[in-house]
Amino acid sequence: MTRLTPTTAQTLGLFFSYGFLTEEDSIVAGPTAIGRHIKLVGKRTNRDANACRDALTEIWQADAAGLYKGRDADADPAVRGFGRTLTDENGYFEF
To answer: In the chain, what are the domain boundaries?
Structure first.
């Protein structure tokens, strides 16, 4: 069996999902964003390879030109550049 290496523990939390997330938070780029659009799907597990339910996952993504909203004046306004979502009951998430 493959040994999984856990990521570093976080000291910030516990948050309640009903006050922390919106449905749009997992949308990193809107339909008019320039460039190739993909769906990113993953699974979060604990060190025993069991699914982590309700785990918060956050990502950053530059626009097609490598620019970030809030940092670069010419960034594509259709790209939020940041996303967050919770895993489902089987540990899966998607952006």
So the answer is: 25-95
What is the model's pTM? 0.73
- Does the 25-95 domain belong in CATH 2.60.130.10? yes
DSSP element (H, E) containing 75: none
Q: How many CB atoms lie within 10 A of CB 30?
A: 13
pLDDT mean values, one per 10 residues, the chain (95 residues) = 71 59 90 95 93 91 94 95 93 96
Closest CA relative to residue 29, chosen from 58, 53, 64, 72: 64
Dihedral, 19, 23, 26, 32 alpha carbons, nearest 10: -140
